Amino acid sequence: MKYSIVVASLLLAFGAASAFAQTTTANTVQRDVNQQTRIETGLKDGSLNTREAGRLEKEQSQIERLQAKDLKDGRLTPRERARLQRAQNRASTDIQQAETNKAKGNPESASSQRLQADVQRNVNQEKRVEQGVQTGTLTNREVGTLERGQAHVDRKESRAARDGHVGKLEQAGIQHKEGQQSDVIFDRKHNAKNRKG
Fold first, then answer.
1. pLDDT tens digits for 115-149?
2. Nearest-angstrom CA–CA distance, 173 and 150
3. Model-level pTM?
4. In the chain, what is the straight-line distance between the N-terminal and C-terminal CA atoms, in Å?
5. What is the C-alpha separation between 32 and 54, in angstroms, rounded?
6. Residue 48 in contact with residue 56, Cβ under 8 Å?
7. Where would one find the signal peptide in this protein (predicted)?
8. CA nearest 52: which of 3, 121, 102, 125?
9. Out of 79, 83, 157, 160, which could bridge 170 as a Cys pair, Cβ 3.0 to 4.6 Å?
10. 131 and 34 in contact (C-beta within 8 Å)?
11. Are 26 and 126 in contact (CB under 8 A)?
12. Cβ atoms of residues 71 and 124 within 8 Å
């Protein structure tokens, strides 16, 4: 009898820890979605120019690399969560400052529209990752792998935009990387691995 109570208690504690880990991972991915959406909105309304958006994408890339590193073992420790939250808070402040400074973008320019389309795809892909976390079709390790892939996409966008102009060839390179990442997201969401709990 005592043995079954101990086992049941352990299973309940493991389930609660697993649910907490899932919620924490979902929260960090949701912040990615929110920040990418803010960058896209800033490009569309002209409060961000292409160069500023490129700098912000570089920062997003660094955050996603940190997420990938922290989720490599399948969990986020309290220390990792705090470090990630600080990085995301800094990025949020940087987005706000860039949106409210005197530099303005031209949302109608071909360069801005190219970057707008690429950032919109970031939003969509981060939403797919978040949905996979919420439904249990992605493990934390898989989320880490996908965030590493998103970091590569963001870095490519950052490099393309650093001179304030995203050309057609640069966009083609970004879209190629985004297509590869989309395939990886699909594969990871539809493999046999599922979250426990």
1. 999 999 999 999 999 999 999 999 999 999 999 99
2. 14
3. 0.85
4. 24
5. 16
6. yes
7. 1-21
8. 102
9. 160
10. no
11. no
12. no
Q: What is the mean pLDDT of residues 43-57?
A: 97
**C-alpha pair distances (Å), 44 with each of 15, 87, 116, 187:** 43, 25, 7, 32
What is the chain's length?
197
Residues 163, 168, 169, CA angle at the centre, nearest 5°? 85
What CA–CA distance (Å, rounded) separates 48 from 161? 12
How far is the C-alpha of 68 from the C-alpha of 197, rounded, in Å? 22
At 130, give phi and psi (nearest 5°): -60, -45
Residue 95, both tokens: 């987005």
Query: What distance in Å separates the CA atoms of residue 98 and residue 95, rounded to the nearest whole number?
Result: 5
